[in-house]
Amino acid sequence: MSGDKTSQRAAAIASKALQDPKSLTSEEVQTLAASVLSQSSSQGQQGQQKGQPQQYQGQQQNQQKK
């Protein structure tokens, strides 16, 4: 793991989301998404290109072979 830590704010929002998902504001949703995305992209996932879901990468590789 890269050593990234979830901020206390993001952790509090995540807890709130688990208790009552409909109570989140759009700002809180954006904070959670930013936290998750910043941590997942910094872990250097092998075989994944930035900004593309894993399911599409296999399709791209198949098209390149044709």
The secondary-structure class comes to mainly alpha
Number of helices: 3
Question: How much helicity do the residues have?
Answer: 55-70%
Please outline the major beta sheet: none
Low-confidence stretches: none
Radius of gyration: 16 Å
| First and last CA, distance | 36 Å
H/E element sequence: HHH
Shape: globular
Quick tags:
66 residues, mainly alpha, 3 helices, 0% strand
Account of the protein in words:
- It is built from three helices and no strands.
- The protein has 66 residues and is mainly α.
- The chain has a domain at 1-43.
- The chain is globular and about 25 Å long.
- The model has no long low-confidence stretch (mean pLDDT 75).
Question: What is the element layout, followed by pairings?
Answer:
Blueprint: H1 8-19, H2 26-41, H3 54-65
